[in-house]
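My current task is to audit a protein record that another person submitted. What it holds is a sequence and that sequence's fold in token form. Thanks in advance; the entry in question is below.
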Amino acid sequence: MGNMVAIVGRPNVGKSTFFNRLTQKRQAIVDATAGVTRDRHYGRSEWNGIGFSVIDTGGYDEHSQDVFDVEIRKQVLLAMDEADVLLFVVDVETGITDLDGGVAALLKRTNKKVILVVNKVDNGKRLADAVEFYNLGLGEYFCISSINGSGTGDLLDEVVRDLKPEENEESGLPKVVIVGRPNAGKSTLTNALLGEERNIVTEVAGTTRDTIVSEYKQFGFHFELLDTAGVRKKAKVQEDLEFYSVLRSVRAIESCDVCMVMIDATRGFESQDMNLFHLAERNRKGIVVLVNKWDVVEKETNTAKAFEAAIREKTAPFRDYPIIFISALTKQRVFKAVETAMEVYERRSTRISTSKLNDFFLELTKEYPPPATKGKYVKIKYVTQLPTHTPQFAFFANLPQYVKDPYKRFLENKLREEFNFTGVPVSIYMRKK
């Protein structure tokens, strides 16, 4: 699985700003009152050619001290389980607090790499003040200012020092992952496919442990199945459970080829499902949506067609992917799901010859050129598929900067109609001829 770096620490030490700095996104809502970063955040970062995922733990909104204590403790323990490197962020303005001491005590128990990060150090006096953090007993520390970014370079050198470049262990086999909310039926499907009760499935959300990789070899199919059900049994709080099941899914999605997004038909397509779907889409993975438990839905009110349309509406503008209604329990259409996943895998490695692309698109763009902007006419002169792992296309034009998203989507849709990329995210770039 990929490298995972977790940011831990009490509220308001600037974890979110630091997270944004690492992932170059303004994602978390940063505000000076305690506990406003509601969302747990996940992002990608790269330094010196080493890629890693960054997890920003946190997101507490209770204001009482003891609740914080319990919450933070839980976050730290879970992060200690999941991450390869833990960044413990403290705040030079407030110095060491009891909570910092508590977090440090927990971190001393792990054999994972822990880096102490003293934040908000933006002048010489504060540099001197930072010495107090030796008292946490975690050894050397790094001084940074996540607002202006000073010190982050040295820190990142240290973060990636022991991380390996992320390479998928190449078995050469397609990797398929089943993701979905706790209790959507992921393990049941895995058992249906592999024909053995390998995960003890119970009705308690989050009873399965780690990501299990199994080889599937029957009916002429041969691939690796990653099952990511794993969440700790102890996490009682639904949110945490969700968050850490998402973590597992994130790692598995990054290392797979095709992602089966499993939806519980009795609950519909929820925001969590959306997040997983978009994560797979952003990572350019093949996607198959499985609607599970369709056998128990009241059919009068719900037609498959309407249900399907609703899902596609939510994932727009990407609508071109297979949706299969299954029952993991009765094994209904489970074979169809596997077959479809393998078709998507094949399509994802499609190479279209440059001559075919140009024959099709030059004709098309002559007939439907990009709308003129400010009296300037855009002409597309040449199309080619880029030598990437996943389907990405470059359109060369005289004025690429004038081609807007709606037209790119038009091109993408035509590409899909002509060359069949169902289930495969496609990227289109406009380049200067």
About this structure: The CA atoms of residues 321 and 422 lie 5 Å apart. The chain is about 35% helix and 20% strand.
